[in-house]
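Design a sequence for this backbone.
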């Protein structure tokens, strides 16, 4: 019995020993790679791990300085790269592009190859490197700008620009120019070939990869192209935006047709570029200088305009498609966006003057020099004027004394039913323009009088009845600032085009101004022409200074509303006497 028990104990011990051996074996199998991996990294902590080669040279266990020595002693730096085609040969001297092998980066790549990834990847690389050596390509540096310039020059000598097919327009007859094929260097592929040569130190002649570009048409494509052109022959496209309008003629449209179907967007884009400066404007920053109760300098901020080019290209392409279908094409509005200025009115003043609230304009073509001078002087006297909320503006007070003593010249004025030379002729051009700006702004008009006679200057680009005469001290033009903010008057004097503009700046309170079209309710014919002697003109010279005008009664209504509520309403009635044409007749001896 004791023997059986001893036998069982020995079997158990034997079994346990076997388990222990297995466990130890497993632990050794599991930990040995770890010891090997970490041991290898420790032993080669500042060296390249074994079985690594650069350009055929074994750099196992190398430190950085050893790799530098090897590059200096064993690796030859090439002198040039030779590029060839079937007809030509080109050389790039490597010293001119500052070619150098980059030892630092090459060592870093070799050193980090076994250290820059996850544990199991690095382990696998170390073990596999003992079977198959690792090859690390040498890194290099060069002046890419100079290198690209060399390639660009070489490319320009090899490349041949293709000629695209075009429609030939001879009167109403259309034909097709088939174009011709071209070629260009595949620069990306060429760079890759050169980089491969640098890394592999394989400096044999490199064949330049060339791509053929052939836009020419076969007979079927040519006929389709011609058919499309015939469909569009004689047709046009109208583009418009605000005051701008452009007609795209048949010859231009022919260039928009792509020979291979669809439309040539690059050509449409170039065409848009040819006129965009007539549509686009740059935003204008605000300048505002207030001193001594008056604005000394004011440049209002203005939004710029920029064409939405992609949308316009798409719209023109769609319009061409409509024309090809035989349908009628409406004018195409040029899509545009507003571009904001960097500095706005509100950022440069504390008076609440933030935006343009009204504008008026008038023209004075045919005015004599004295009158033109006086218009500029009087407009400068009201420009910069500030009107506080609730304040009434008087034109005569703002302009001040009108005489030769204050800088005015003599010009023809209407006085006592006669046209005579008087100080300040032309001042009423300014009051008239201001009247129109105030109407447009929706402000309350306190006092306004029409001229006794219809004056041709005030009806250039305007209907009758929109004038305001002034004559200090009896006749004035006045209006009230009934907005909650200050108002600023600005004038734009443009004598070269005989134009005056008055702008009113403030802050909109959502009011809307409207004027009905002036209606002439009765007319009276003008008297006979009047000739007046002028000693400043040579004998025999006749110059017309005023034009005949029928007498008339003109009426228009002026209404200002806000959110449906009427703020101000007035009927303006102008009674004009008939007026004769007036001529100056020279009396000065020649």
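Sequence:
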């Amino acid at each position: 019995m004791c023997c059986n028990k001893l036998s069982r104990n020995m079997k158990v011990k034997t079994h346990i020993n076997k388990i222990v051996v297995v466990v130890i074996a497993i632990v050794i199998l599991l930990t040995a790679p770890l010891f090997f991996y970490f041991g290898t990294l420790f032993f080669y902590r500042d060296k390249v791990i074994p079985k690594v080669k650069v350009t055929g040279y074994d750099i196992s266990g190398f430190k950085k300085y050893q790799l530098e020595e090897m590059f200096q002693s064993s690796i030859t730096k090439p002198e040039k790269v030779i590029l060839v085609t079937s007809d030509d040969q080109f050389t790039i001297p490597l010293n001119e592009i500052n070619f150098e092998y980059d030892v630092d980066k090459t060592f870093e790549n070799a050193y980090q190859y076994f250290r820059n990834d996850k544990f199991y990847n690095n382990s696998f690389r170390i073990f596999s490197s003992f079977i198959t050596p690792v090859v690390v390509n040498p890194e290099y540096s060069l002046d890419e700008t100079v290198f690209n310039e060399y390639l660009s020059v070489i490319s320009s000598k090899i490349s041949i620009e293709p000629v695209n097919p075009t429609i030939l327009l001879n009167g109403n007859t259309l034909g097709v120019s088939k174009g011709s094929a071209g070629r260009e260097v595949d620069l990306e592929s060429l760079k890759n070939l050169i980089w491969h040569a640098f890394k592999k130190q394989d400096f044999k002649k490199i064949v330049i990869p060339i791509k053929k570009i052939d836009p020419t048409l076969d007979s079927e494509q040519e006929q389709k192209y011609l058919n499309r052109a015939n469909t569009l022959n004689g047709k046009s496209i109208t583009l418009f935006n605000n005051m701008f309008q452009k007609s795209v003629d048949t010859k231009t449209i022919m260039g928009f047709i792509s020979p291979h179907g669809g439309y040539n967007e690059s050509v449409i884009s170039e065409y848009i570029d040819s006129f965009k400066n007539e549509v686009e404007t740059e935003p204008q920053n605000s300048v505002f200088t207030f001193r001594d109760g008056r604005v000394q300098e004011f440049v209002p901020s203005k939004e710029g305009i920029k064409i939405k080019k992609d949308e316009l290209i798409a719209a023109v392409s769609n319009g061409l498609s409509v024309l090809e279908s035989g349908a009628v094409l409406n004018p195409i509005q040029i899509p545009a966006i507003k571009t904001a200025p960097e500095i706005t009115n509100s950022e440069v003043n504390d008076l609440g003057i933030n935006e343009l609230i009204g504008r008026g304009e008038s023209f004075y073509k045919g005015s004599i020099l004295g009158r033109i001078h006086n218009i500029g002087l009087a407009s400068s006297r009201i420009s910069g004027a500030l009107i506080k909320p609730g304040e009434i503006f008087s034109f005569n007070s703002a302009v001040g004394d009108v005489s030769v003593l204050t800088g005015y010249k003599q010009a023809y004025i209407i006085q006592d039913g006669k046209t005579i030379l008087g100080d300040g002729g032309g001042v009423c051009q300014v009051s008239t323009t201001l009247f129109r700006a105030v109407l447009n702004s929706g402000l309350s008009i306190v006092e306004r009088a029409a001229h006794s006679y219809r004056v041709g200057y005030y009806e250039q680009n305007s209907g009758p009845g929109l004038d305001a005469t002034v004559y200090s001290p009896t006749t004035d033009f006045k209006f009230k600032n009934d907005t909650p903010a200050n108002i600023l008057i600005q004038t734009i004097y443009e004598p070269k085009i005989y134009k005056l503009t008055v702008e009113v700046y403030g802050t909109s309170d959502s009011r809307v101004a409207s004027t009905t079209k002036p209606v002439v309710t009765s007319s009276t014919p003008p008297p006979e022409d009047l000739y007046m002697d002028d000693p400043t003109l040579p004998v025999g010279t006749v110059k017309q200074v005023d034009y005949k005008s029928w007498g008339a009664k003109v009426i228009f209504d002026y209404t200002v509303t806000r959110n449906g509520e009427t703020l101000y309403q007035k009927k303006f009635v102008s009674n004009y006497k008939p007026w004769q044409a007036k001529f100056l007749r020279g009396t000065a001896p020649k």
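The chain has a mean pLDDT of 85.
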